[in-house]
Amino acid sequence: MSLNINSLLIHGGTDGDETTGAVNVPIYQTSTYKQDGLGETRGWEYSRTGNPTRDALEKLIADLEEGKYGFAFASGLAAINTVLSLFKAGDRLLVSDNIYGGTFRILDNVFKNFGIEYSIVDTSDLKAVEAAIDDDVKAVYVESPANPLLTITDIKAVAEVAHKAGKLLIVDNTFLTPYLQRPLSLGADIVVHSGTKYLGGHSDTVSGLAVVKDKELADRLYYLQNAIGGVLAPWDSFLVIRGIKTLGVRMDRHVQNAEKIANWLNESKYVSKVYYPGLKSDPGYEVQKKQADGPGAMISFVLDEKYDYKKFFKSLKLITLAESLGGVESLVCHPASMTHAAIPKEIREEVGIVDELIRFSVGIEDADDLIKDLEQAIKASAKEAI
């Protein structure tokens, strides 16, 4: 029976345990499995190669992303590392001009050493993408919304450009999750996630996921997953499955809060710029509305020059200064010195990642309490009496 997304979150993939009737998939905390004879297994050999709890999560994320094959990894970067291992020396990737700093770091400091190159391009500009594609380019790597400036890329349009040239499209869907956006259905070839974020949802586990539709691509990824070995452990697989069950109700509240706070920031005198694709004034608003079921719950904003951003962070009482995002609790970070510190300063500032930029992962607390905390922290950070 075909299920809508809210039912699929709970019953997708492997639904319960057929052996015992347990409504939750058990945690198969084992490294190896008994074989009945040489070459005679019961479908499992060694938990790096496959584990029933991890398998349940992999099937679930494949269902949610409207793909066919899912892969679970020890972190989001382990997932990205494995996907990038599809390429070889001499290959080049086109990469969104504002992406997660860890993605930039692994491209610039790791894969570049192996002869895999990258070029930074504004993927929201189709003509720029088309002009940048040459014979060496093998894939376009997109975040939409991008981290941290929430730039929106038209995934379907970029997929058409990439496929016309015979290239792959890889989309990081961490910020929206399959609850709000399904890039494979828009034409992407590979979707990646940091499952640490909204999918886990409770800041208690680190994980990564990838999904594809194509069998040949899936076979290559499975080989690399097993060969590289950065797989997700059974306990963490269980935690991500548990988190996904409440993804719908959490995301609804996250987005509701974020829309209210983004509008408050946009109308306030405290900031010089707000980045949020749910605002009608945002340049990505129409594309976002077309390709996703909501704008997400990440907001970035630039404090007005009258306020000291360092004092702002110290003055917060309810909202937490921390790395990461997507948990039930609200988190803020300073991209220039935290999540995007690996990106050279001149590149950061060129795209808009200035020192006054603050990234806000809006949690599910009371929105009015969050606004009160923002306002008192901003007022406390005034450089002069206002």
Explained architecture:
With 386 residues, this protein is an alpha/beta fold. The protein folds into two domains: 5-245, Type I PLP-dependent aspartate aminotransferase-like (Major domain) (Aspartate Aminotransferase, domain 2, 3-Layer(aba) Sandwich); 248-380, Aspartate Aminotransferase, domain 1 (Alpha-Beta Complex), CATH 3.90.1150. It contains 14 helices and twelve strands. Strands 1-7-6-5-4-2-3 form a seven-stranded mixed beta sheet, with helices on both faces. A five-stranded mixed beta sheet has the order 8-9-12-11-10, with helices on one face. Strand 2 (92-96), helix 4 and strand 3 (117-121) form a beta-alpha-beta unit. Helix 2 runs parallel beside helix 9 and helix 10 (247-267) packs across helix 14. It is globular, with a radius of gyration of 21 Å. The mean pLDDT is 96.
Backbone structural class: alpha/beta
Which radius of gyration do the C-alpha atoms yield?
Answer: 21 Å
Order of helices and strands: HHEHEHEHEHEHEEHHHEHEHEEHEH
Average pLDDT, rounded to a whole number, is 96
CATH topology-level fold name of the largest domain: Aspartate Aminotransferase, domain 2
What is the CATH homologous superfamily assignment of the largest domain?
Type I PLP-dependent aspartate aminotransferase-like (Major domain)
Helix content: 25-40%
Please report which band the strand proportion falls in: under 5%, 5-15%, 15-25%, 25-35%, 35-45% or over 45%: 15-25%
Count of separate DSSP helical elements = 14
Oligomer: single chain
Domain count: the total is 2
CATH-defined architecture of the largest domain: 3-Layer(aba) Sandwich
Cα separation of the termini: 61 Å
Report the count of strand segments.
12
Low-confidence stretches: none
